[in-house]
Amino acid sequence: MQNHYAEGQPYLDEGSASEVYADAKILEMESLSPMTAIQPGSFAELVEDWSIISDISTEAGEAELDAKLPPVFS
Q1: Segment 12-33, tens digit of pLDDT
Q2: Residue ranges per structural domain of the chain
Q3: Which of 1, 5, 42, 54 would you call most buried, defined as having the most Cβ atoms within 10 angstroms of its Cβ?
């Protein structure tokens, strides 16, 4: 998941645009928008880009992940 971080905008949770929670049963990923006042009759939109990347072993180490996953930040 990659959402579009708005540089210079205020985000909650120490400036985070994404949060991840995991335990033995689930993996939860949330994207967060910057804090925004929304006036009556207007709306906000949060864009997310999702990718499925196959051929990665569940036992993958950091080197394999670095080789197969695209860079998140340029």
Answers
A1: 888 888 888 999 888 888 888 8
A2: 1-37+46-52
A3: 5
